[in-house]
Every structure is written in C-alpha cells, then in structure tokens.
C-alpha cells in the first residue's frame, strides 16, 4: 500500500511517501519545508496570517507530489503549535481544501506514541528499554518503553518556543541562556515525574535539532541524513555543540553548511534543550535517528 504521511510541526512541515507491505517499508519520496507555523504562538496563542500562508503554500506543493505518485492513504498530523493556536480552524480548513482530508491535531501522548514507533523500528530488542526524545519547535516528547510505549510526557520546551521566550540578543546574552536553561530544567523535572528518564538502556534523539547536533559532532560540512542516521553522539560532544552555538551570532550561524537556514536562529536553544536532557538522564551518549514521528505516521496507516 502506498501511503503519504505529513508531520506539521511548529518550525517545519514534512512529507513522506512510502510503500508498506507487512513489515516491509520502502521510501518513495521525502521532503521538508521550514515554514515556522508557530511564529508568535507562544506569546499570542494564535497563528500569524503569514505563517498560515507559508504553511499552506507548502501543503500545495505536497498535494502535487501526492497526486502524481498514486498515494492510496494520507494522514496529516499537526502538533504543538496547532494545539496551542486559538484560530487553528483557519489553518485546518485550508488543509482540507488542498488535500481533501481532515488533518488531525494530535495530543502530546499520540505524538509521543508515533515518535516511538518510528524511532525504535530499526533497533533490536536487546537495545531496550528505550528513551525516545523528540525535540520539536514547540514541545519536546519524552517516551519510554520496550516494544511499546510505557510512559510518555510532552512538555513545552521546543527550540522555537525557547528562542521566542528567552533569547532576544545576537549573540545571546549569558542571562538569556541561563533563563532558557532554567525553563528547560524545570520542564525536564516535570517530565521525570511521569517518565523514568534515567532508566533507559538506549537514548534515541529524533528531529532536526538532534540530527543537526549529530551533524556538528560528525564535523559534516553539509547535512547528510545517511551519515547522521544511527550516529552515536557523546554527552561531551552535545554539551560542546550547545556552548559553541550559544556563543555565535546570526552571521556566523548562517555560514554553517549543515544547518538549514530556517533552523539557524533557533538552533542554539534547541541544542541547549538536548544538552540539558543529557545531563538530566545521565546518558553517556545518544543515538541520532532520521526515523521519527513521520515514519510512525506512515506505519500507523499500514496498521489501519
């Protein structure tokens, strides 16, 4: 069966088209657009008209790809920013008009479940228990389990939210970084009340922040998802990346070859989130995975 999965987050919107037959998965097409749908949502609790326009323009492009590739089923999942926006119906109606399906505004728990399915598919049972950490633009999901999700918690410490809330200088001031760090630590402590974050055998980190930290640790000049996927990154490397990018200004970040231009202004906050997670879990390393919620959405269609 040919399926299309769409993950619409706070910073990016992504499309995966795949053929799934039982346990066999064949990727046909994958793409991403940085649209910053969550622009200002943390402060205003509503989508900015420009953000809706950018995102629907990307959906138009996705609709063309879906149409020409013979997709049988589509699932569109919107996450943190859409959960928080009071005017989300404007956006939802725009998606329905373009794709002919009802987009789902999924809960943090469902987001966590789908991330876990996507991230753990390639790992052996002997690598369990897993802690999957999905650092998005608006929220971060902590998901613990063996073959299935056992504990999950979503907290509002995404890279866009932490940047908009705390970082207003270029380069960031020391007190801004400390304010962000405090917000992050408080949220991780809340997650730890539900999720046994120190008990996992394997820490898997997914989404653009984590994979970009891996790209930096691997010293890549250009982003290469094949080199990044399943790369192991030490806690020390993670802390080094966070410190390095917190000291950079926008001009310096713009010359980093592996960093998507739409991620450059929020990467310092995102890498700080991952650095604090490494400290809180006591993990010596994380495994970067290119398989994440998007893959989980695709697998969920095959199971229906």
State the main characteristics.
304 residues, alpha/beta, Nucleotidyltransferase, domain 5, 2 domains, 6-stranded mixed beta sheet, 5-stranded mixed beta sheet, 13 helices, 11 strands
CATH topology of the largest domain: Nucleotidyltransferase, domain 5
Number of helices: 13
Helix content: 40-55%
Q: What does the largest sheet look like?
A: 6 strands, mixed
General shape: globular
Q: What is the level-2 CATH architecture name of the largest domain?
A: 2-Layer Sandwich
> Unreliable segments (pLDDT under 50, ≥5 consecutive)?
none
Query: What is the distance, rounded to the nearest whole angstrom, between the alpha carbons of the first and last residues?
Result: 11 Å
- Rounded mean pLDDT is 94
Number of domains: 2
Strand content: 15-25%
| Strand count | 11
CATH class identity of the largest domain: Alpha Beta
Radius of gyration: 18 Å
Description:
There is one protein chain. This protein has 13 helices and eleven strands. By secondary structure, it is an alpha/beta fold. The chain folds into two domains: 105 residues, Nucleotidyltransferase, domain 5 (2-Layer Sandwich); 167 residues, Exopolyphosphatase. Domain 2 (Nucleotidyltransferase, domain 5, 2-Layer Sandwich). It has a six-stranded mixed β-sheet with strand order 8-7-6-9-11-10, sandwiched between helices. The longest helix has 20 residues.
């Amino acid at each position: 069966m040919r399926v299309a999965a769409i993950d619409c987050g706070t910073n990016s919107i992504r499309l995966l088209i795949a053929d799934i037959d039982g346990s066999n998965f064949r990727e046909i097409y994958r793409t991403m657009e940085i649209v910053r749908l969550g622009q200002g949502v943390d402060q205003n609790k509503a989508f900015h008209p420009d953000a809706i326009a950018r995102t629907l323009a990307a959906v138009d492009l996705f609709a063309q790809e879906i149409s020409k590739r013979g997709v049988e089923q589509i699932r569109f999942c919107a996450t943190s920013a859409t959960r928080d926006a009071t005017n989300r119906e404007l956006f939802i109606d725009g998606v329905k008009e373009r794709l002919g399906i009802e987009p789902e505004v999924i809960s943090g728990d469902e987001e966590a479940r789908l991330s876990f399915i996507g991230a753990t598919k390639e790992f052996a049972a002997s690598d369990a228990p897993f802690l999957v950490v999905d650092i998005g633009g608006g929220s971060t999901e902590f998901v613990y389990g063996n073959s299935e999700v056992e504990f999950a918690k979503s907290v509002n410490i995404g890279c866009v939210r932490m940047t908009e809330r705390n970082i207003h200088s270029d380069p960031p001031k020391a007190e801004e970084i400390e304010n962000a760090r405090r917000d992050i630590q408080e949220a991780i402590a809340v997650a730890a009340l539900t999720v046994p974050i120190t008990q996992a055998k394997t820490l898997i980190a997914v989404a653009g922040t984590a994979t970009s930290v891996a790209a930096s640790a691997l010293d890549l000049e250009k982003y290469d998802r094949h080199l990044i996927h399943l790369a192991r990154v030490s806690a020390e490397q993670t802390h080094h990346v966070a410190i390095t990018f917190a000291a950079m200004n926008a001009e310096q970040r713009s010359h980093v070859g592996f960093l998507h231009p739409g991620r450059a202004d929020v990467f310092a906050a995102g890498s700080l989130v991952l650095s604090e997670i490494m400290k809180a879990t006591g993990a010596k390393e994380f495994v970067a995975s290119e398989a994440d919620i998007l893959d989980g959405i695709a697998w969920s269609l095959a199971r229906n």
